[in-house]
Amino acid sequence: GWGRDEHLQSPGRGDPDGGAYQQLTLNLFLSEAEQIQSIDEAENVAHTSSAFSFAQNDIDHVLRLGGNTDRQRERVVAAFEKQKTTAEIAEILKTLYHGGNGLGSVSAWYAEDGIHLSHGKSVRYDRSAQVISWESAAERIGELLESGQFASNVELAEAAGYERSLLSEKALASVPRSQ
Fold it and tell me: pLDDT digit string (tens) for 92-130?
């Protein structure tokens, strides 16, 4: 028989807080891994000769809000939904992001070689501007999409329908009109 000081041991060794500790450890590990990934991404994005580099938040802000194309985020989302390659998406971004923007203290100019960023009011002819390649921009937008930080749920839901409406407008415009 069992003595009164003997207890059946479970594989968890009867530690009621063991699961919470493991969860906390897992969260800390994920957080550290995410931080390392974020640092690596920032280093990859920051090909710059500028003494003034940009916070990832500033770059993300430009990717989300810059560009000067109507319903741009829906169009970008549609490209990702078609599972195009990074290079193909980079080419699409070149057409959707054009001209320039001033977003807060950051100025952006969209050029053939990528997105030029500068602090202040002028960037187009700033030789010290930080340049983010279109491929790096495409990769970062993909990461923002996966983490739910690029487009609203409404924009995500409407992306495919908006793309179809653009295609049907193009098709109708190319049909010769009878006289």
Answer: 999 999 999 888 888 999 999 999 999 877 777 788 889
70-76: Cβ within 8 A, 24+ apart: 71/155, 71/162, 72/96, 72/97, 73/150, 73/151, 73/152, 73/155, 73/159, 74/151, 74/155, 74/158, 74/159, 74/162, 74/163, 75/159, 75/162, 75/163, 75/166, 76/141, 76/150, 76/151
Going from N- to C-terminal start, the domains of the chain cover 46-172
Cα(110)–Cα(102) distance, rounded to whole angstroms?
A: 12
130-132/106-111 β-pairing: unpaired
Distance CA 119, CA 166 (A): 35
SS3 53: coil
Residues 130-177 pLDDT 10s: 999 999 999 999 999 988 888 888 788 888 777 777 777 777 777 776
What is the DSSP secondary-structure string of 101-164? Answer: EEETTEEEEEETTEEEEEESS--TT-TT-EEE-HHHHHHHHHHHHHTT-SS-HHHHHHHHHHHH
Q: Which residues are registered as beta bridge partners of 114?
A: 111
